């Protein structure tokens, strides 16, 4: 049994092979990962609770086999989606090999009614300097449209731009984000693209608005990513987007939360995205042509 401490609270868990190295390039063990998630659990839970989560498990480390899981039991016909409401539940999944958490944009009660909209800036083969430039321009565009936003790194190569919204159907949210993305593409065709085929993107940043689709998920805020640096999907301010995503390591994120709290939990106005765009003269159809569905994360 291993004991974990979170403020005044303590729990003991059975952990198989706590000394197992999960990230061999930097020597991070399963126990290190558990300690990180215990330390940040109070800021993670508000973002993960009441949502049907998807987990990615690497029981033998990031260079071993990966298991993708959406239900609590994988060897039965049980349909119970993965949900967590306590830091003990969070750590129990990590003890089972979970490294990454992926979170939908809608609550489990009405999964197709999204209360977040997102732009996933995918760099493909371009460097971080161009991702940072693209983030700043997208932020400026949203400010011109009077849309409040939050930023976080993907924890790997991209940047995520989130908007708090009143619940709306995923198709409506997808179309709204598509329209905003096309404004960016038309204004900066050398920098942005919405081309889904990677071979046609060139040296441009892909604005993936399709991540707003039904049943899509995004890497959860504060989730560690299964990359050699064990970097974290971390909230950032606009003046921090030039910092390489690999800089946001587990110890730095813990220290940052201790200093500033949850930067993804700060008060941000909730908007009716469709109505807000209508007020700006941008009309969003109530439904989306199904030909836009699909695509990868």
Protein architecture, described:
The protein has 297 residues and is of the alpha+beta class. It has two domains: 1-103 and 219-233 and 242-258, DNA primase, PRIM domain (Alpha-Beta Complex); 111-213 and 266-290, DNA primase, PRIM domain (Alpha-Beta Complex), CATH 3.90.920.10. The chain has helices spanning 30-48, 87-95, 128-144, 170-187, 250-260, 273-279, and strands at 2-6, 9-13, 21-23, 28-29, 54-57, 67-69, 98-104, 113-122, 150-153, 159-169, 192-193, 205-208, 217-219, 235-236. The strands form four sheets. Strands 11-12-8-10-9-14 form a six-stranded mixed sheet, covered by helices on one side. It has a four-stranded antiparallel sheet with strand order 6-5-7-13.
Short précis:
It comes from Sulfobacillus thermosulfidooxidans. By secondary structure, the protein is an alpha+beta fold. The protein folds into 2 domains: 1-103 and 219-233 and 242-258, DNA primase, PRIM domain (Alpha-Beta Complex); 111-213 and 266-290, DNA primase, PRIM domain (Alpha-Beta Complex), CATH 3.90.920.
Total number of domains: 2
Fraction of residues in β-strands = 15-25%
The backbone outline, from C-alpha atoms, is globular
Any low-confidence stretches, pLDDT <50, length ≥5? 288-297
Mean pLDDT: 93
Major beta sheet, specifics?
6 strands, mixed
What's the helix count? 6
Order of helical and strand elements: EEEEHEEHEEHEEHEEEEHH
CATH superfamily of the largest domain: DNA primase, PRIM domain
CATH architecture classification name of the largest domain:
Alpha-Beta Complex
Protein name: DNA primase
Pfam family, one: LigD_Prim-Pol
InterPro entries: LigD_pol_dom (IPR014145), NHEJ_LigD (IPR052171)
